[in-house]
Amino acid sequence: MQSSDKEPDRSAGPGAAIGRDAQQPAPADGRDPLAEETLSSELVYNGIFLRVFRDRVRTPDGHDTAREFLRHPGAVMMIPLLDDGQIVLERQFRYPLGRSFIEFPAGKIDAGEGLLECAQRELKEETGYVAADWTHLGGFHNAIGYSDEKIEVFLARGLTKQEARTDDGEVLEVFTASREQLLDWIGDGTVTDVKTIVGTYWLERFLRQQ
Description:
210 residues; 2 domains; disordered N terminus
């Protein structure tokens, strides 16, 4: 599949796109019997890219309660697969947990930016790699209890190395590993980043289907 600026098809499942608001099948009348009614919404924190809201809602059983959650601009994650089967990974310090994590490269979507455009930009900035072939594997919501963030996952192949241009203050260690190593690291708890775990198993499924 050649690189394209066309947005991925909005169908479900790894190997196909998943729409931003994809849901389970709705009842015949189109109403979700579990839906909560928003009574009020308050922006309590407006950060650099995260916004925190506190809403009052009414649940289906008539109970009024509060919901606190993050609005997120969305993100992309890239799985860079080299011709020899090695995978490009990075180690990055994550301040909330006070340690470094092994991850696939990823980044937030800028305003007005397409998914593929963002994936191409972030891959080059973080790793220095440019990909000739792009496949959209799907998307997932990674924190449904407190955030609307959705991460779209792309497989990047046909890689060539250029110069990485990370943002100021973004310090990364880029390295390669085999799929077997990555699966072992997930199994023994070395890798705990959820997006990397999801992406690894989606990659395995995709390759088995080829």
